[in-house]
Amino acid sequence: RKEVEQDPGPFNVPEGATVAFNCTYSNSASQSFFWYRQDCRKEPKLLMSVYSSGNEDGRFTAQLNRASQYISLLIRDSKLSDSATYLCVVGDNYGQNFVFGPGTRLSVLP
Amino acid sequence: DADVTQTPRNRITKTGKRIMLECSQTKGHDRMYWYRQDPGLGLRLIYYSFDVKDINKGEISDGYSVSRQAQAKFSLSLESAIPNQTALYFCATSAARSGGVYNEQFFGPGTRLTVL
Which helix (H) or strand (E) holds A19? Predict the structure, then answer.
């Protein structure tokens, strides 16, 4: 089993749609959780950190379920500019190792 | 100006050649990382360094070596390049843990390496 797994995608959605991405991780000692966004042939950039209580940033909401070792990202009112690959990232308990999921590609269509 | 820079941005080389990829950062971070990205596999950690005197192997260090010349510089070497090292290579930095929160990583623009 891979350490971090994500929905395989791709997701093709119309503008204005709500879309949810799921991520599971295998290391129960993981302490830090992030969602990164990566545009084609570009570097990953932090979208948001994921906190135990869940957090929201505008149209984006992230949730963490430690018991199920599951992270989610919800995007509301999708924009064309949201088209990208979304990477789930999990950090170990020593802050030494960030493990990246394979990514889920999103295409928002006009 | 970019906070994390990588040189070269693109490189084509032949099997058996020695290649060095360089990374510099102006963020003042102690931690630096090298990753490679292959289609469908996500980013995989090659080496990481928590300060100038600290070097650690990552998931896929075989065939690679690194040097942390200064806090701001971290270079990756392929001593004898082979075709399956063709990939997109990213350098990243992060600040040390603070207040129990692990800080995000900041990535350079990447180096596209092709080994023929």
Answer: strand A19-25
